[in-house]
Amino acid sequence: MPKLNYKSLVSLHVLISTLFLPVALMLFISGSLYTWEIKGSYDSNEFLIDVEKPLKQDADFLKSIVLKYLNSNQIPHPSGWHGIVKDETTYYFEWRGVDHKITLEPTELVNVAKLNVHETTFFKKMVLLHKAEGSFLFKFYTTLFAALFPFLLVTGLLLSWRNKNLRKIMLLSLSSGTIIFLLLFSIQK
Q1: What is the pLDDT of residue 150?
Q2: For position 45, what pLDDT does the model report?
Q3: CATH code matching the domain that covers 42-120, chosen among 1.10.1060, 3.30.420, 3.30.310, 3.30.70
Q4: Contact criterion met (CB below 8 Å) for 130 and 116
Q5: Which residues contact 9 (CB under 8 A, 6 or more apart)?
Q6: How far apart are CA 106 and CA 86, in angstroms?
Q7: Which pLDDT score, from 0 to 100, does residue 5 have?
Q8: Residue 2: what pLDDT?
Q9: What is the mean pLDDT of the chain?
Q10: Where are the domains of the chain?
Q11: What is residue 142's three-state secondary structure?
Q12: Does residue 26 sit in helix, strand or coil?
């Protein structure tokens, strides 16, 4: 195995950090805004559709109605979870995706259902991807970033330790960051 010298460590650090910079920025931005309850939104369209049989709380039955509507209107199928969502008085079928979410619910009329197509805004899509609601490839990409992020932190420490001008700043910053984290962590209730 080749020896990892200073120059190759710098090159590897730069290569990995720049490769994952876009996903890092997306995760940092969406995560920090989500912390403040900024979650993005949907642009929604409501449609009243005729149904052959009255709706019932059967996920497969409701999905078949949604599929028929989506296919006849050339709307792509959502990529994520689907099922029935209930509250105390009513229920609806929901099918989630990163680009859009579909809901189907009964109306007062037995043979009419309300179907909503909720198109995600740009920021809502970032939040959904952050919450791992994207494709397998995107989940793999973000997982790879998460696995390599500690490497970036450690190599950053090692590279700054080697440089005498950066060593003092790094030690001061590391100490301050650790103290701030421990203080804030300890006062949480």
Answers
A1: 95
A2: 95
A3: 3.30.310
A4: no
A5: 155, 158, 159
A6: 12
A7: 83
A8: 60
A9: 93
A10: 6-37+129-186, 42-120
A11: helix
A12: helix
Query: Which residues 6+ apart lie within 8 Å of 78 measured at CB?
Result: 95, 96, 97, 99, 100, 101, 102
What pLDDT is recorded for position 189? 85
Beta-bridge mates of residue 105? 114
User: Taking Cα atoms as reference points, which of 48, 62, 51, 61 lies closest to residue 93?
Assistant: 62
**Sheet bearing 112-120, strands edge to edge:** 42-50, 112-120, 100-106, 91-95, 82-86
Using the structure block, give the residue that is written with the tokens 């859009």.
100
The amino acid occupying position 45 is: N
The predicted pLDDT at position 141 comes to 95
Q: Encoding tokens for residue 176?
A: 């301050």
Looking at residue 9, what is its pLDDT? 87
Sign of the C-alpha dihedral computed for residues 40, 45, 48 and 54 taken in this order: negative
pLDDT of residue 16: 95
Report residue 28 as tokens.
Answer: 């940092």
185 vs 116: CA distance, rounded Å: 42
Could you give the residue ranges of the DSSP H alpha helices within the chain?
Answer: 6-19, 21-35, 59-72, 122-130, 136-162, 164-186
- Give the whole-angstrom CA distance, residue 125 versus residue 96: 12
> How is residue 170 written in tokens?
């790094």
First to last CA, the chain: 49
Extract the residue ranges of the chain whose pLDDT is less than 70. Answer: 1-3
